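Action item from last week, closing it out:
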Amino acid sequence: MAPSTGTKSQWRLCKPVEMVQDRGAVCAKLQRVSVHISIFTWALVPHPVFGGISRFSILQTSVQVPAPAAGVIEALLVPDGGKVEGGTPLFKLRKTGAAPAKAKPAAAPPPPAAPEPVAAAAPPPPAAPIPTTMPPVPPVSAQPIDSKPVSAVKPAAAPVAAPPGEAAPSKGARSEHRVKMNRMRQRIAQRLKEAQNTCAMLTTFNEIDMSNIREMRAVHKDPFLKKHNLKLGFMSAFVKASAFALQDQPVVNAVIDDTTKEIVYRDYVDISVAVATPRGLVVPVVRNVENMNFADIERAIYELGEKARKNELAIEDMDGGTFTISNGGVFGSLFGTPIINPPQSAILGMHAIVDRPVAVGGKIEVRPMMYVALTYDHRLIDGREAVTFLRKIKAAVEDPRVLLLDL
């Protein structure tokens, strides 16, 4: 396998087991054990009989990589957790057709030896005859029976002591163990620390009355499901409201190019939506949200979420993104300060919906309320733009007609 010239990146390679036919191509079954390698972009010479090793897991994503030939992988040359440079052989491949020599059948085990004859035991002596008459029962004594408390009764024998040298385990013993961080967790930790070291992060807060959007969902969720075969949630409202606010405050959608010391303004809106998976948090990207309606957004979120849970996200699903939304409310979070996802300049944090008393028109009413938090890079975004942006989201979620009227 020859690497092509390209950007060097960290790759996580799942161990393939054996090549199998899948839709006319040769694919590899994958095990969960992983090998971590550092290589350039793959470039293999095409061949009519070449197949594709189905998927390699690369940190939070997966990518298709072609196999040099159809066959069986006999040995992996990279140890678990090891790092190699581009061009290093990764595995040994035995081409199809050269079947492995079948193992010789094991010799039949010798027949078991005949058991030695055992001398017949002498017949037991005849049992004594059972008496036909019972002895007379002694008369019951008229004297009272002496009684003792249970505690005064001693056991017949003392318990057997434990052998010396085997100390009994002490109650409440404490221990600890270590588990090596997987590559995904290491990468998450690295990126979060990079964000702290690079951005001047500041967080502003607001609260959103969810009464109208909750009522809209209750009224239209069944027709929405019937027409689009999708459940109508709250995330689509926040994604659409964020796109609306990003167009109103383009600096929040911009980013600083530290190399050229320039501000890069994007005229498109690609929103990263955080998805929790058993392997960790991933942030696939919903692209061109400014051109989507609620149904388009719900479908994109559903499809990306399914790919994330099945560990089938590709590089293009994760690449880019101009703004991120994280919903800690699904876990019951009431308040929090999200961390920016570099190289973006801001992130919106959603939280749990809680019924709280609020003042409405001079009266106290119980409304479903949500706290929202916007963390932004203060090097680029001033407080005025950040607060205006968050209030724009608040207005669009509380009354979706704002989106239709472009207010």
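Closing note: Residues 2-95 form one domain.
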